[in-house]
Write a structure and sequence with these properties.
Elements lengths: L1 H11 L10 E5 L8 E4 L5 E4 L9 H12 L5 E5 L5 H4 L2 H5 L4 E6 L8 H14 L3 E4 L5 E2 L5 E7 L2 E2 L9 E2 L21 E6 L2 E5 L5 H8 L2 E2 L6 E3 L11 H7 L3 E4 L9 H8 L6 E6 L15 E3 L9 E5 L5 E5 L5 E4 L3
Parallel strand pairs: 3-4, 4-5, 5-6, 12-14, 14-15, 15-16, 16-17
Antiparallel strand pairs: 1-2, 1-18, 2-3, 7-8, 8-9, 8-11, 10-13, 11-12, 18-19, 19-20
C-alpha cells in the first residue's frame, strides 16, 4: 500500500494546472447525496463521492461544471466514502464525461442484494479504466499542497490521534450509543483535510456509534474550522459528543429539500461551541422556518431548483470565505 500511494504521489506531482494560493472546495448540489470537489493550491483535485445515478446524468453534469469552473480537465482522485446510491451511484455517468486518475475506497461492500450488487458492478466497471486503491485509517492521500488523513474506513478508526490532538473528551460521559449499524454507512471512509492552519472534516455517512469511537474517550481528530455535516444532517449521525468536540466555526450541510436537515441534528450543530454559521445546500422542509438558516446561507431555497452549490476558499493562515453560488452572498472568516 505504501508503495502504491508513493506512486500516486509522484503521478499527481506532475499535474499541469495553474498554481493558486487558496484551497478551493465546491459543495456540489446532488439533491441530498454527496459530491464535494476539493482543489488544492497546486491545482490537484480530489472529488469526494459522485452523487446519484440517473436523472439524465444531472449529478455528473453538475460535478463536471464545478470542475470546469475550477479550471480542471480531469479529476486526479475520486474518493468513494461508501457504496450507497447517493454517493457512488453517479460514477458511471461521471466517468463518461471526464477522465479520472485513481479511485480510492474502503474495500468491498458489506451489503448484498440486487441494488447493492448493481452498484458494485457499476463501480467495478468504472474503475477498470483508471486505478483503484483501498484505504485504511491512518493512511495519507497524497494531494500536493494539502495534508489529507484517513480517519475512518471499513468500520475502523485511527488508532492514535492526529498529531498534536487527542484532548480528553468530557462529553463522552453522557454519550449514549444507538443501535449498531451493520450496513455501508458505518463503513464510511472519513477524512481530515488540512491546509496550513485550516482544517475541514468529512466523515461521509458515518453513523452514531462509529462517531463515538472516533471522539471517545479522546477526540482523535481535534477541532476543525469547517464540518461537513455527517449523513446530510440526519438523525442516525451527528452525535453531540463528536460535533461539539470538533468545535467547528462553520458547518455546511449537504442536504436535499426532503433528505437530511433533521431538526434535532440542526440543533446539535447550532449549539456546538464556537459555531458562527450553518450553511445549507437546500432549505430543509422537515426542519421548518425556525430551524433553517437565513436564505443568504442556503444555496437552493426552492424544492424544484437549479442545483446551485456552495464554494469555500481557504488560506494557509486559517482564514477562509464561503460563497453562496445562487446569489453571490459571501462571508469571510478571519484567521484565529
Amino acid at each position: 500500500m505504501r508503495n502504491l500511494l508513493l506512486a500516486l504521489c509522484v503521478s499527481l506531482s506532475a499535474a499541469c494546472y495553474a498554481h493558486a494560493k487558496s484551497l478551493e472546495v465546491y459543495f456540489v448540489d446532488v439533491e441530498g447525496g454527496q459530491a464535494t470537489l476539493v482543489v488544492s493550491p497546486s491545482g490537484e483535485s480530489l472529488l469526494i463521492d459522485t452523487g446519484w445515478p440517473g436523472f439524465g446524468g444531472r449529478d455528473a453534469d453538475r460535478i463536471v461544471a464545478a470542475a470546469r469552473a475550477a479550471g480542471l480537465q480531469k479529476l486526479d482522485v475520486v474518493l468513494i466514502t461508501h457504496y450507497h446510491r447517493d454517493h457512488v451511484g453517479g460514477v458511471t455517468q461521471l466517468a463518461e464525461r471526464i477522465p479520472v486518475g485513481v479511485y480510492l475506497d474502503h474495500g468491498g461492500s458489506v451489503e448484498s442484494g440486487e441494488q447493492a450488487n448493481a452498484l458494485m458492478a457499476a463501480y467495478n466497471a468504472a474503475v477498470v479504466k483508471a486505478r483503484r486503491l483501498g484505504l485504511k485509517p491512518g493512511d495519507k492521500i497524497p494531494i500536493k499542497g494539502l495534508d489529507v488523513t484517513v480517519l475512518t474506513a471499513a468500520g475502523e478508526t485511527i488508532a492514535k490521534p492526529v498529531a498534536g490532538e487527542g484532548e480528553p473528551n468530557a462529553l463522552c460521559a453522557a454519550a449514549k450509543p444507538q443501535e449498531d449499524d451493520s450496513g455501508e454507512n458505518a463503513q464510511s471512509l472519513g477524512i481530515l483535510i488540512r491546509h496550513g492552519k485550516f482544517r475541514m472534516i468529512d466523515l461521509g455517512d458515518l453513523t452514531w456509534n462509529e462517531e463515538l469511537e472516533l471522539a471517545c474517550p479522546a477526540n482523535r481528530a481535534g477541532p476543525v474550522d469547517v464540518y461537513l455535516t455527517t449523513h446530510h444532517g440526519g438523525p442516525s449521525s451527528g452525535a453531540p459528543a463528536i460535533v461539539h468536540a470538533l468545535r467547528p466555526r462553520v458547518a455546511i450541510m449537504n442536504n436535499g429539500a426532503r433528505k437530511g436537515g433533521n431538526p434535532d441534528s440542526i440543533k446539535t450543530v447550532r449549539t456546538s461551541p464556537g459555531l458562527e454559521d450553518l450553511w445549507q445546500l437546500h432549505d430543509a422542509i422537515e426542519a421548518g422556518d425556525g430551524n433553517n438558516s437565513s436564505k443568504d446561507l442556503i444555496a437552493n431555497v426552492e424544492e424544484q431548483c437549479e442545483g446551485r452549490g456552495i464554494k469555500l476558499s481557504a488560506e494557509p493562515s486559517g482564514a477562509f470565505a464561503v460563497t453562496n453560488l445562487r446569489n453571490g452572498f459571501a462571508k469571510s472568516y478571519a484567521a484565529r
